[in-house]
Design goal:
Shape: globular
Order of helices and strands: EHEHEEH
Number of domains: 1
Number of strands: 4
Strand content: 25-35%
Strand order of the largest sheet: 2-1-3-4
CATH class: Alpha Beta
Number of helices: 3
Radius of gyration: 12 Å
Mean pLDDT: 96
Structural class: alpha+beta
Low-confidence stretches: none
Helix content: 25-40%
Distance between the termini: 8 Å
CATH superfamily: Glutaredoxin
Length: 79
């Protein structure tokens, strides 16, 4: 299972979201993939004002302040 974080450099909320996800890895097994939206024009256009955005199974489960509970529930639904 992979959880993707749309991110960028110099993003305190992104750092916070990734830390939340790493804590959640203590409970549930999954990989974290961090994608820099500035490396893809389409992603930049789509997510520029929303980051961080967390996707589970390709579906957005949260943006801005990320809820570990929402991510946990999304992962459980896919397992």
């Amino acid at each position: 299972m992979q959880v993707e974080v749309m991110s960028k450099n110099q993003c305190p909320l992104c750092v916070e979201a990734i830390a939340e996800l790493r804590n959640l890895q203590n409970e549930i097994e999954f990989e974290i993939k961090v994608t820099d939206i500035y490396q893809d024009d389409a992603l930049l256009e789509k997510y520029q004002l929303m980051i961080p955005v967390v996707l589970v199974g390709g579906k957005e489960v949260g943006y801005g302040h990320i809820s570990a509970l929402d991510v946990r529930e999304a992962i459980k639904k896919l397992k």
